[in-house]
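notes to self, project folder thing:

trying the whole complex as one job this time. last attempt i did each chain seperately and stitching them together was a nightmare. two parts in total, labels are on each line so i dont mix them up again. if this works i'll redo the older ones the same way
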Amino acid sequence: AQTVTQSQPEMSVQEAETVTLSCTYDTSESDYYLFWYKQPPSRQMILVIRQEAYKQQNATENRFSVNFQKAAKSFSLKISDSQLGDAAMYFCAYRGPYSGGGADGLTFGKGTHLIIQP
Amino acid sequence: SAVISQKPSRDICQRGTSLTIQCQVDSQVTMMFWYRQQPGQSLTLIATANQGSEATYESGFVIDKFPISRPNLTFSTLTVSNMSPEDSSIYLCSVGQGHNQPQHFGDGTRLSIL
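result (full assembly):
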């Protein structure tokens, strides 16, 4: 079974600074998808960014970018110019190739609690 | 992305009872999923809700405990049966428009069992 590991239970960063959240995963597949989701105290899961494994170029969404290292099975999230609204739990998630049979969900890491210091 | 509404948003239930959670989407979606998030934990996939057929359950989850319906492409329900305090969690519905599309989540249902 695939596993997703987030080794940082909590991270703290000063407002306007840059922070990197780590994620590693274990899979024997070559075609898969990786995601970062954000969960603020309101508990809504919000998609931050996604990466297709077949794409070598790292995904970027405004202040959010990833460093995808396929060989190392690493997928870190960089948040630039951190803002107070970025404070939340951040979950890394994996989705394997479609296998049919009706099962197609996400495997999540345990999450990193990001604190923004004003 | 689709607007996903979950009802109820929260509930407090007595042990031994059952509760049905509804997930309504404002557009037709190919895939619907149910996740559980235990207190302070990550999300765990319960099952994939397939339209017109039985749900596909993940290891550790069974249909008798978590029956799921998906009568059409915009609606699904999850029932938590014979509840115990260990079932106290947030239950989240998510939807997707295909395997190569991201999943989007509802606001979740916070369930507490006394």
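what i see at first glance: The two ends of chain A are 41 Å apart (CA to CA).
need to look closer tmrw
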